[in-house]
Every structure is written in structure tokens, then in C-alpha cells.
Amino acid sequence: MRDTPRRLWVVSPSYRDVPSFLMLREQVLAAIDGAVDLDGACASFVVVDDTAGRDPEVEALHELADTRVIEPPFNLGHQRAIVFALRRLAPYIAANDLVVTMDSDGEDRAEDLPRLLEPLMRPDASRHAVVLARRTSREESTAFKLGYRVFRLVFRALTGTVIRSGNFAAYHGSVAKNLLLHPYFDLCYSSTFVAVDAPITYVPCSRGRRLAGRSRMNTSLLVLHGMRMLMPFLDQIALRALAVFSGAFVGGLGLVATIVFVRLFTDRAIPGWATDTALGALILSLITLSSWLILFATFSQSRGVSLSSLDRQDDGPP
Q: Is 33 helix (H, G, I), strand (E, B) or coil?
């Protein structure tokens, strides 16, 4: 007989999305009541107020007995807000509890929650298992879909893999208490599960509609989000970049060697453009390689350090 989890933690970042969360909470409670495997599990909702206390509507959440609010000292972005909250909650989460992270706007559908938790409820489920919602469809503009396809191609070229999941994830409390301490989670939540080679199970889930309000995501935020998703793969990207630029360097060196050989040991005339091209290829490959790696590593480190400093704060129980 499988053990019933003591508690189901539902962690949601919110940036002025309290009306959406209230609707999502009701849908989650209904989904849990209809799931036999979750019968007896006590649901606790955790809202991460990513406005850092500037949203007056959050005050209403304190009246809900099953909901608590965690307030970061400043805006972190939805993914790092999740990590910040889970690290604060870790001492209060039991190893056999279930943890679900999902957006508060309703685009992570509550009706998919039982299917996401089902692999974790199996008798042979590993306590290290991570279940991610694999996006099968989304209702977006043509421009967004085109840009998303380009991003996926670039992501695959740089990392050798594709991320088709977001914040909708589920795992046991032991993962939240241990794996989420990995420093890569300081950089990005969703892609780090893949980067650290966690035992992942994917569950196909369509992206839902926003329950209330409007999205505050814009092009700049999307680009920054894409950059953060790349950060946990810094090692793979560095190796691939090194291989590409090393190939360019070797090719340029070979071209220079060919020109020198022709000039010294043959009577053939050498076009001026050939020499300029060879030297340009060598210089450009070296400059590009060093600059790209330095900038990427510096940006990654700066994002990680800012969140690590928050982990040292101790404000008592959330």
C-alpha cells in the first residue's frame, strides 16, 4: 500500500495576478478532490509576490487558511521567484510531500495536475523523480510562434537539446530540499532540471488560457528569459563554441600555412585578398571566442550571485 503524502505544496509566482490565482486555487482544489490517488492529501498554496509587496490585492490572500504569501525583497522574475520560495520553504517540506510549481495566471491548467502527479504516486516511483509538463500546443500569434521556432533551433545548436517545458513541474519534497540547492537553479528554474540530468518524466499538457487580467510579458522579457534558459548549459555551450572557433582557427592557420608555403617554395603569385582573408579569419575567431565566453560567463555569474545573497537572509518562518 502506497503512503499518502502528508501535504501537497502548490507554489505559484504572482506579479499582479491575484484574481487569476484565486480562480486557479478553486480549480486546483476541485482537481484534487476528483483524484483518488490524492485523497487525504492536504493542499497548501504558496504565492510568491514578485512585486515585492507593491500589489495591494495580495493582502486578501492572507485571509485564506490554506494559502501563505512569500515576499521577495525585490522583483526576481517568475522562475527565480519559485526557487527563492522553495528554498525558504525547504525546512517545512517533508521528504514524502508532493511539490507542484505552476504559473498563477491559469496557463498551467489545474485539470492536468492529477496526470502530472500520477508518476510520483506509483509504488515504484523514485524519490528523485521529476515530472515536467511537455507543451503540446499553445495559442499564440504567428510572430511569436515563428520567433519560438527560431529560438528552439538556436537552443539546439548551442546545447544539443530542446526545452519544451516551463514552470509546471512536480516532484517529491526530497527534490525541493536537495536538488534545488544546485547553483544552476539560481540562473533558471525550468531548464536546469535538464541541465543537471535529473530523472525526468514528461507528461503532455496543452497550454491553457489566462484566467484573468493580461500578460505583462514583452519582447525584452522574452529575450531575457531565453538567455536565462541557456545559462545552465554554459559548459555545453562553451565546448561547442570552442569546437567551432577552434575549427575556424585551424582553418585560418591552414590557409596562412598554405600561403607561406606557396610564397617560399613555388613561383605562383598570391592574390592580396588571400593573405588579408587568412589573417582576418585568425584574428576574428580569437576575438569572438574570448569575448563571447567572457561576456556569457560574467552575465551568468552575476545572475547567480544576486540570488545566492538572498539565501543567506533569515527572516524566520514564512
A: helix
Using alpha carbons, select from 172, 49, 151 the residue that is nearest to residue 99: 172
pLDDT at 95 > cutoff 80: yes
pLDDT 10s digits, 7-17: 899 999 999 99
CATH for 7-216 is 3.90.550.10
C-alpha span between 161 and 164 (Å, rounded): 10
121 Cβ contact list (under 8 Å, min separation 6): 2, 37, 38
Give residue-wise pLDDT tens across range 246-293.
777 777 777 777 877 877 788 777 777 777 777 777 777 677 667 666
Q: Where are the domains of the chain?
A: 7-216, 235-306
The bridge status of strand 7-14 relative to strand 42-49 is parallel
In DSSP terms, which residues pair with 44 in a beta bridge?
Answer: 9
Q: Is 12 helix (H, G, I), strand (E, B) or coil?
A: strand
* Under 8 Å between Cβ of 8 and 102: no
Of 224, 157, 231, the closest CA to residue 194 belongs to: 231
- Beta-bridged to residue 98, according to DSSP, are 8, 172
Q: Are 38 and 117 in contact (CB under 8 A)?
A: yes
**Spatial CA neighbour of 165 closest among 103, 80, 256:** 103
